[in-house]
Amino acid sequence: MTAALQTVVIAHAAPTISSSDYRKPILDPSSQTNAWTNIIPNALAGYFTYTPYTTADAVKLGFPASCGRLPDDPASTEDCYTISVKKFQQALSLPAAWGFGGQGLLNASGDPFGSVTWVYGYGSGGVNWSPPGAAAGVSVTGNAPKPFTDGTISTTGIWHFPAPTIKSTKGRPVRVTWLNELPNDKPTGFDPTLCDDSPYNCYPYNRISTHAHGAHTNPDSDGFAKAWFTPLFAQKGQDWVSTVKYGPEGTYRYPMDQPAGTLWYHDHAMGLTHNNTNMGMAGFFPVTDDNEKLLPDS
Ligand SMILES: [Cu+2]
To answer: How far is CA 235 from CA 13, 14, 85, 227, 289, in A?
Structure first.
């Protein structure tokens, strides 16, 4: 018995790795001194956090009157938003946004890409905004965080990579109308082998399905890979379902019946999750609760 046991232990203590993948030289940290000189935004700061609709604006768009913004709407019980996805140019060095910044993202040669880069990102409108699909003549003050330069709600809204943050609280449900404003551009690095070899799930390229990573949801608000849709819901995946019972078409509801945690939201469309998320479709969605609020600040 003892001899046999010793044999087993020795066999596990001396594994043999033959794959060349595990025999690469260890990266020298000193070679990476210029890799991360970029300063990223504070994801929890006011300038980077969506503002919920007022009850009046939410109702204009088709949300229930339970939507509202505390403390302006004390009777409200839910936070409600419209968040869309766009392609836009952004200075990834961020100097204009915060008055500081590094070189931004570097290319394979270690050089900055340049002052602006084409990215995808989530965002929301500002004052006098008519979200895509809104009834004619309806405009609202969107959920854009305060612009990064002058501290006021902008007229055009904010779309950003990485995306602004949805702050939530346990016991206060969140509704988000997820909208798609992407062009049908083929992403760099698109991998057609990830779509079940099915044209139906591989095309068009501007398909989105937003998943709140870590959130408790019903299936209709999960952001299934085949629940994708194109702008104005012109084309839809086979798992797409109408969610007008939650608000404007495309609204997902998050009960927020879960403890504090660092959730995040990102694209989840079939065969595109890797492209869309890498191109910027990702943002934080933290939940706080009474336990977390009792923690000391530092
Ligand atoms: Cu995820």
So the answer is: 55, 55, 16, 11, 39
